[in-house]
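FAQ: What does the model actually see?

It sees only this:
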Amino acid sequence: MSAHAMTPKQAALALMAAMPIGPSVQQLEEYGIDATTEQAQAMTQEVLSLNLFWIFASIEAHIPQKYQAVLSDFILNTMEVDWGKTNPVGPAVWTAYLTEWQERRGRYGRLVEEGLSPLAVSAAAAELMEERHLVIEGQQQNLLTLLIDFVPVDTYGQLLQDVG
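And it is asked to produce this:
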């Protein structure tokens, strides 16, 4: 075990700490995205879904299988307790979000199984947000730039390299 090795629980906490808070209306404007408060809250949920997808993919790739369920449960339980406090998700209910996230997780997982890159998965998420009318047509490129900044895929994998 290296000098910087983490326990699985420390790794879960580090993953959650690395996850950016969802974008505010003002931050969206900085990316050239026009959005209402409600649209920003819905985008936050989508960004959160993409982050959780990559966090769980990192766990599956780097954490021994015997610890994966415990870590996953810890992360989801922590998210539930903090629901609406740390991420501006609006009036969304955790159980409804969790069901929607499971659908997103399956969708993104199929894309990865097809060999698509993290950037392509982000593009699919941006397309989904456009379909849901969370952004106006033509802002998908701006949204993709935002997703690159708000979904630190590489960071998640790097954090888990020293789990022991």
